[in-house]
C-alpha cells in the first residue's frame, strides 16, 4: 500500500475543501481499502466522511430519500424500503456478505469498482486502471465479463446489485461539490466504457454522492430481484434481473426491467418493458419479451452462455412477481 495523508472533517464543506483529483473519500471502506492494499487505487489523501450529515431514510409524498452514508443492512431492513420497493431490499440482501453489508455504505456501493481480475492485478494491462495499456479480457479469461455495452477497450462488468435495482426504479442521486448541488438520474450517472473505460461515471473530482432518491411508484410493491451466481452467497452475479410489474388482473399495464452481471453498467431494458405492455402476464409472454434482452449483445469466447442466462433470469424474476398476486 502506498503512503497517504488522512483527514476526518466534521462538515461537508470541510470535506469538499479537502478534496482534489488525488484524493478519495472513505465511508465503509469495503472497496477503497481493498483496492488500496492491492495498489490498484493510490490516493494521495484519504478523507473520512463518516461524521458528515448524510444519513437517514425518509419517506415523503414523492418517494423515499436515503442518505449516502446509510449502511446496506439498515436500508435492506427498512420497513418502508422492504414494503414499498422490495426489489431494492432483495438486491441488498443478495449482495456481499452479512459482515460487509453491515460496513458498506449505500453511496459506496454505487461507486464500487469492477471485480475483473485483470483490473485488480497490477502486473497485467488494464485500460480501466492504466489507460492505453490494453484489455487482456478480450481474448483471455472472460467468463464473468460483459456482453452488453462493451467496447474494444473494456468488457468489464459493473459489480453492484443495488445499482441494478435502483436503475429499474428510476432512482436519482444527489451530488455535491464546491460548485453546488445537482440531481442526476442513475441511468445517466454511469458511463459506457467507449475509448475511456477509466472514466466510469459523471462524478467530478472532489464531488460526493450525498443522497439517493427513489421516486414514488405505487406498483413498485410488485417487484423482485433475482441473482444467478456460482454459489449462493458472497459471489457476484453471472446474471441478475430487477423487475416490477403494474398488473390489472392478468394484463400488464407497465413494467420496469434492468439487468446486471451482463453489462458494463447497470442495464435498463426498455425494449423488454415495451414488449410486455398490454400483454397477458404468462410465462409465454415473459419468455417472448425476455428474448429481446440480448439485442446488441457481443459475447466473448467464454461467456456466450450469458445470452440465454439473462433471458431466463428475467423470466424467473417476472414469474416470482406474478406468483405473489
Automatic annotation (TrEMBL):
Residues 1-219 form the FAD-binding PCMH-type domain. SUPFAM superfamilies: CO dehydrogenase flavoprotein C-terminal domain-like (SSF55447), FAD-binding/transporter-associated domain-like (SSF56176). InterPro entries: CO_DH_flav_C (IPR005107), CO_DH_flav_C_dom_sf (IPR036683), Diverse_Substr_Oxidored (IPR051312), FAD-bd_PCMH (IPR016166), FAD-bd_PCMH-like_sf (IPR036318), FAD-bd_PCMH_sub1 (IPR016167), FAD-bd_PCMH_sub2 (IPR016169), Mopterin_DH_FAD-bd (IPR002346). SMART domains: CO_deh_flav_C. Keywords: Oxidoreductase. GO terms for molecular function: FAD binding; oxidoreductase activity. Pfam families: CO_deh_flav_C, FAD_binding_5. The keyword Oxidoreductase applies. Coiled coil: none annotated. It comes from the Bacteria. Signal peptide: none annotated. The keyword Oxidoreductase applies. This is Xanthine dehydrogenase YagS FAD-binding subunit. It comes from Kibdelosporangium aridum.
